[in-house]
Amino acid sequence: LKARELRLLEVDNQVVLPIEMTVRIQISSKHVLHSWAVPSLGLKTDAIPGQLNQTTLMGTRPGLYYGQCSEICGSNHNFIPIVLELVPLTYFEK
């Protein structure tokens, strides 16, 4: 771990989303049930093999938001972190 990193919550690639804009998130799984959860944003959606589920998000505050799979889905369940970075829309206009 590097300084200021959170154990078991860091990811290789964060999902970057705009604030103050409705974002539709579509979720599925290839093999087993997962539950995609970011509690601080009130998000929790099941990822079911062969089924496409969706949820919406409209963030109001920029920042990093951490989550994890909240379904016990296998031996590496505790290694499924989620990081959303919410940024102003101007970030995408560069």
UniProtKB/TrEMBL annotation:
Its EC number is 7.1.1.9. It catalyses: 4 Fe(II)-[cytochrome c] + O2 + 8 H(+)(in) = 4 Fe(III)-[cytochrome c] + 2 H2O + 4 H(+)(out). PROSITE patterns: COX2_CUA (PS50857). Its cofactor is Cu cation. Residues 1-94 form the Cytochrome oxidase subunit II copper A binding domain. Keywords: Copper, Electron transport, Magnesium, Membrane, Respiratory chain, Translocase, Transport. It is found in: Membrane. It is an enzyme of class 7 (translocase). InterPro entries: CcO_II, CcO_II-like_C, Cupredoxin. One of its GO terms (molecular function) is cytochrome-c oxidase activity. Its main location: membrane. GO terms for cellular component: membrane. GO terms for biological process: ATP synthesis coupled electron transport. Belongs to the cytochrome c oxidase subunit 2 family. This is cytochrome-c oxidase. The lineage of its organism: Eukaryota, Metazoa, Chordata, Craniata, Vertebrata.
